[in-house]
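Quick one: structure tokens for this chain, please?
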Amino acid sequence: ITRLWSFGNGDTATVINSTKSYSSANSYSVKLLETSDNGCMDSVIKTVNVNPKPSVGFTINNTSQCINGNNFLFTDTTIIISGTYTRQWNFGTGINDTSTSNSSNKVYTIANTYSVKLFVNSNYGCKDSITKTVIVNPKPNVGFTINNITQCLNGNNFLFSDTSKINGSTLTRKWNFGTGISDTSLINNPSKIYGNVNSYQVKLVSISNNNCKDSLTKMVIVVQPKSGFTINNTSQCLIGNSFSFDDTTSTTISRLWDLGDLTTNTNDTFSKTYSNAGTYNVKLKVNDAHSCSDSITKVVTVKSSPAKPMVSAITNSLLQSTVANSYQWYLNNSIISSATNQTLAIITNGNYFVLIDSTNGCSNLSNLFAASSVGIAEINISQNEIKIYPNPATQELFISFLSPQNTNTILIEVIDVKGSKLMSFNETIQTGKPLSIDINDLAEGMYFVMVNNKAYKFVKTDK
């Protein structure tokens, strides 16, 4: 017997037992033709089925991702000509980390390289698999140091040093100094000087060569005390001066006052009396808890006070002060109304003194002058140069001059018994003609008329 195998795809064989591997899935008719040496033939046909294997495949959204924010999406793209199949994913973590879904998400917690394998198995038991590699890149271990997180506005200089690290990669960086403007730097160890008191958020972003990023934010603080103080009155007279100083700085820990006269003080609030007239620069320097300092200077003026006035008695009825800018007389510590001249006609015994002012507004007080023998010149024609009549008077008072005067103009003043000046005027003397004084507005009572600083008594009556 001789034989001939026909495998249904054009291939043949003549061996007794043959094997055949098909390259395409299909149904094939396999024929065996037998021929005897007498030329007798017979044949038989059988069908074999070559089932298709799955054409396995899958896609990945991004094969290289950073550890922070990674999310790998695996999508099965397997094709099979006929039949169905099942699948299983293995995400390469070395643990029971699998899935059978068509599309699977995977978030890795450790930076590494992972072999992701997809197994498929058809309903005929035909299997196939494919493996792909994904890379989870490490993020930077970001960090930086600051020379001093709290500094004074005056002389601040913040030094930042990048201490970020990463395994197997290189880093670049970007600093943002938190001023709200485009205030950045790319160098490793930058410095920054701030121009305002504030708190600033300094952010460092570290970027690997795989574009993996991480950031760190730290706060720096710029502080500065704002010195200030109040003064009760910046300009005072030498006599009785008392300057009150009050530190209004809210963050003061320590202070030093320079009072401009080689004296100092460290109190919050105090008073200062200067011994000499002049202008003084008062400086307050304060320090806060961070040893930040600030200072402020204000000027105080101590005005010269006039010399103590001297009161002397010209007569028993007339006192006189040394020359001053203005005058105010007192009797027994009570002010004498309208007594504001250099001289004062007195009609009552008691303690007199005068308060004088200088042109700069400063005053001084005389010593007490004790008057104990006050005398008012009575009208006596035989002994005086003038005659005042009628006495008592009702509406009009006349003054006649009995002898020539040294001046053509005389000072006439009318004073009540309390020493208050009620009238004052200058009159021109006309020979042989008496002076007339209208006293209608005076109330009934005793009054004194001063004629060139000499006092004469008269009575006003309404009858």
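The mean pLDDT is 90.
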